[in-house]
Amino acid sequence: MTDTLLINVRQEAAPNALDPQAASWHLQMPAGDGSPELHLGLQGGTGLDRPRHWIHLGTRAHAAPELGLHHRQTMLMLGSNLTGAIELTGLAAPALLAAEAERQQALLDAAVLLLGWMAHQQPANLGLTVFGALPGLRDERGQSPFWAALGQHFAGMTPAQAAQRLGAHWADDLAPLLPRHPVMLSLLPAGAQAVVSQVAPAASRLAQQLVMQGLASGRHVDLVDAGPVHEAPLASLLARRGAAQRHLQALPAEAAEPLSRWWCWAPARGVLLRAEGRLADDGRLQLPSGALATLGAQLDEAFWSAPG
Amino acid sequence: MTDTLLINVRQEAAPNALDPQAASWHLQMPAGDGSPELHLGLQGGTGLDRPRHWIHLGTRAHAAPELGLHHRQTMLMLGSNLTGAIELTGLAAPALLAAEAERQQALLDAAVLLLGWMAHQQPANLGLTVFGALPGLRDERGQSPFWAALGQHFAGMTPAQAAQRLGAHWADDLAPLLPRHPVMLSLLPAGAQAVVSQVAPAASRLAQQLVMQGLASGRHVDLVDAGPVHEAPLASLLARRGAAQRHLQALPAEAAEPLSRWWCWAPARGVLLRAEGRLADDGRLQLPSGALATLGAQLDEAFWSAPG
Amino acid sequence: MTLPALDDPARYLMRPARSDDLDALERFAVASAHGITTLPADRAALADRLARSQHAFASADDASGEEIYLFVLEDLALGRVVGTSGITASAGFGGQFYAFRNEVIVHGNAALGLSNRMHTLHLCHDLTGVTLLTSFYIEPAYEHTLAPQLLSRGRLLFIAEFVERFSERVAAESPGLADDTGHCPFWNAVGRQFFDMDYPVAEKLAGGRSKSFIAALMPPAPIYVAVLPKAAQWAIGQLHPVAELPFSILQDEGFDADTWVDVFDAGPIVEARLATLHSVARARHLSSAEGRHAGQEGEAADGRPRLCLISSPHRDRFRAMLGRVGETAAHLPTALARQIDLGPGALARVAPMSLNALTRGGRHD
Amino acid sequence: MTLPALDDPARYLMRPARSDDLDALERFAVASAHGITTLPADRAALADRLARSQHAFASADDASGEEIYLFVLEDLALGRVVGTSGITASAGFGGQFYAFRNEVIVHGNAALGLSNRMHTLHLCHDLTGVTLLTSFYIEPAYEHTLAPQLLSRGRLLFIAEFVERFSERVAAESPGLADDTGHCPFWNAVGRQFFDMDYPVAEKLAGGRSKSFIAALMPPAPIYVAVLPKAAQWAIGQLHPVAELPFSILQDEGFDADTWVDVFDAGPIVEARLATLHSVARARHLSSAEGRHAGQEGEAADGRPRLCLISSPHRDRFRAMLGRVGETAAHLPTALARQIDLGPGALARVAPMSLNALTRGGRHD
């Protein structure tokens, strides 16, 4: 079981009384091989308790054929489009940003498997969006050219001043002061335009991992630093992998290669496990007996599993 | 080769001089077993030649905690957000809507495989959106309650009158007359609200197939009948399937079961083929020799392939 | 004793409300569910408002804009108070005063020669800071006399006298269409989307909060009138029947009613520049004739006598009455000067009543 | 022969432009790259415009709103045309007239007690259909005389005389900040985002198209001024130096410059109700004194002589001049009546010039 990976999953009390369906999960990948512990959260019911705000990037296209003019304008629209969505939280944690690509990928992979299971359990959730926000591009002093060009004019405070005055939720508290009408991106200074949807260098590898998981950016950005929001319909994540409920059995000791990696999720134990196994001809998933013990697998019990 | 399926693919001249990269492909599934021929198009560079318009469904969330009020409003915003995207065309064709689920699924599956290949060829395209619009819900006389509640007030014409007067592109021609400011959905009559993002009964099965392929609805609707636009980031479609360039070899005559379905794409021949085969331990894809002949497979040539 | 007729102009006196007017004000507030949108039907709140008004009239401090002024109308023949009216110095003081502005948006496709003109309502605070005429109520028996003319227009002379305390723009809200149960077609179509409550509840909330909390809940985009239910469309700019009399007086004065409507019930909001209003524009300054030779008061020298609105220049002792003054008179007749308590050397403001006002005031008597 | 001084009011005559004024108009159009935004520097286009103007002056048809009127100013002493001005009956005729309206939007979070006031520009067509004063140009030598006063204000008397052909609202555009090469800070920040061309090119396109094609390219959302580059912010409502003289004349008349600016260069657009403009509000009607007894023209009976703007009531033979008329004169002096070709029984419009106008007109002479 050298290649076995274990992720501890804890469901937390739904903090949002408005939507008891709102799932809240915490994934913990233990430290190992000199790598620190990594965390990731899945938080449903975004913004249902207190409004959250993002900037939507819309396109307006106009043509005046008689003048030979064709124009596309990107419009920045402050709104709450991701309200009710499931957020991947903790993406900006330094440990996660600094982690090896393999560990980043495994943790995201596990989160997506879990999301697929949630969708499978509650097909009504298939319409939900899953998103995660990454830190945006700032200048060498850590200041956001985007905020300086937009939010600062309206809020009259720097992010530091606002955080001191209003606390952690300062950006959403200040949102009512920000433009209520769409703003043309092309009116902003070039330096602000250039950072829209750009990710901080430290997060660029994680951004690639999110794209590989099917969470694309480009529709919404953060209202402070215009960092990208990576998002996908939950339906597309469910469709993404060969995930299914499968019965398990022990991998025969004499099993021939090749083995491949499989994720398996044991809700009762709060364990997400990745191990080398194979799909038997009868559709059962064969895993090492140690893995079965970790999962607490019972005879004829089906587990949510997918190629890893 | 009883289970072999052949789809003819034709690349058409890019009609859009503004973006020579804009792909235009035509997929044709031949008639068979009493089922008619089916068609599907992939059209890149949407709206780059003449503006196209859709209604974006945005959310505005506001809270007035001191009054105990929390509100979410859906805002209808006319815009051109899907400009530059790749459109699945032909979704409203009666033959496709009426086709057996298996044939619908196969054709969509083939289209998604092709999109994945295009993304693989041109990674710069990964940021593109893929979308397809389905007919919306109308009343028993074929009239759209949505148009009657919104467009009609602004354009002063029924769709029939507009089509007669302005031709096929009437909806986009009339778009400049439609609301330029966001409209609150809740202000429209209940009958119009009820059809937003609802699909015509004849298209509901195809809508499910699109969702299963990862193309979710809910962000944009048609400006005439508010029918749903199904969409996905191309990146999520690429990530979706175990697609890769693989070398082919003939399936040994004595090959043991189980076999599984594989798609394979031969750009030189314009053929997308699905056949029963298996992945050999060395990573080569083993297909029946008849299939290899159809694909025109050469020794050591890699083909874009994926589980079907 | 025979009382003078109700349409005897000398019978009425307008003056600042005093503490002992509280009973009368409460009576008016209760009697006028729709007519007075700004007088609370709650004795404690009324007493508070009265105290604020008395402070505003009496204080020599520089005006901050927070002031409200409440007037009452006395029937001198009966010695009782029969109506009230008020002024809010600065609409939306300390916040914003919200209104919908009627605006036409033109959409078009020039290449196809197609265009349309769409009526829209824009949430705005154009009227923030203007001076508001408020709280108008007259007992029904006096509706068709000259009393309401004095009670409404007298405010304009007060504002003109103390311009430094007011805006150069004056506005007034009028209640919009609603039935006795509070059912309001415009509210049901628009406001209810933001406030899950009946109109009277929201109206009460707003009354205490200067409507500025609305900003957080209403969307910034204009509302296209065409998409609203017909009943809501028709209600835009329509007057509640109870407000016809005070509204018509303001129209006669030259107020314009086309631009703004109320955010809740879409009732019309009239607005004008103070200087353009008839009673203000036509007013002359006259000192008392007291101590002059009798001949100088003679009718021949003073021209044809006309019914005029007459006000004193004293803030806390403000008085306004109706009376006849010669068209070219150089001085105010002594009797009138005494009635408004005009001191020596002080100048009264004298504005001829318009023909409309006279017709309206007397049409049923 | 000694010519009268340039500031002799009797030296100037304003009248409709005629075919033989084409050379002069072309000279003015070429000489004024910035001063005249509505006169094309193209002889054929000028001739066409002149023909349209002549038709408008002459036609007895009901006005459609499409009319333009071109006037010229003659220096009678030299017998030459030294300036021009025009009127467009209805701005944006057949389409819309676009402008940015200055508006303040208040955003706030009431719960936190935070709010701000943001200056925004709203694309609007509030001014569609108003009457536009256009095409003003005066030769530099005459700038500091009374000539420009006559040339600009005379239009107001013409409009007042033929109100049925015009709107009750009058507006005028003034060029905004731009340098000699057409570099315009507001255009560079805003307009260029929609039109990939230099300002002069877009301006020329717009001139021929009444700006209505802009609707298809500009977004409907207001522009928040604070996000624009500082140079563009400063340019909003700023006047190009060449337009100071005609702008100041309109300000003296009572035009308001705070509400609208040009969509291209953000130059101020002034607007007013016709009836409130000084030359219109103060004008009297006088018939010719011809045929009266000499005594009736006497200075004593006519009061103090004041410099006045005098215009005739004839449309196609319209004349406006400056001259001295007694403050209480019942008739127009015969000499002036003859100069404006006032027929028997016809009434001239006579408006006293404001002190500002006189000061301004004579300040350098």
Automatic annotation (TrEMBL), chains A, B:
InterPro entries per the UniProt record, alphabetical: Acyl_CoA_acyltransferase, Arg_succinylTrfase_AstA/AruG
EC number: 2.3.1.109
Keyword Amino-acid biosynthesis found: no
One Pfam family recorded for the sequence: AstA
Keyword line: Acyltransferase, Arginine metabolism, Transferase
UniProt xrefs under SUPFAM superfamilies: Acyl-CoA N-acyltransferases (Nat) (SSF55729)
EC main group: transferase
Gene Ontology molecular function: arginine N-succinyltransferase activity
Protein name per UniProt: Arginine N-succinyltransferase
From TrEMBL, chains C, D:
Keyword tags: Acyltransferase, Arginine metabolism, Transferase
Protein's UniProt keywords contain tRNA processing: no
Superkingdom to which the source organism belongs: Bacteria
InterPro entries per record: Acyl_CoA_acyltransferase, Arg_succinylTrfase_AstA/AruG
Keyword RNA-binding: no
One Pfam family cited in the UniProt record for this chain: AstA
Descriptive protein name: Arginine N-succinyltransferase
Organism classification: Bacteria, Pseudomonadati, Pseudomonadota, Betaproteobacteria, Burkholderiales
